[in-house]
Please model this.
Amino acid sequence: MKLVQAIIRAERMPDLKAHLRSIGVGGMTVYSVSGWSKKRELHLQWRGQPVSYDLVPKTKFEIVIPDEQLDSVIRTITEHARTGSSGDHGDGIIFVSTIEHAINIATLEKDEKGII
Model:
């Protein structure tokens, strides 16, 4: 099993969530987060005055999936979280980790049976 964590632009989440459901992702945990990356600051204007934000709001989500589903999940995230066809700085990042065990508290099913 794999834990996929992704930090993306908040406005991309509704479309991405629908596509993850369509490929069989059973559930997810979603957080509102903020942070910075290589670019460090976002420069905008508010009431005609320049404003710099060093912590940009994003959405983070986590899903646990069977190993076989990893490639299709990564492909779905990269296709639907990118801005335009070539992507843009700040589109996000994906982290993948291995999960040793998962136990469904309600059913007591373990590992892949517990997450499906």
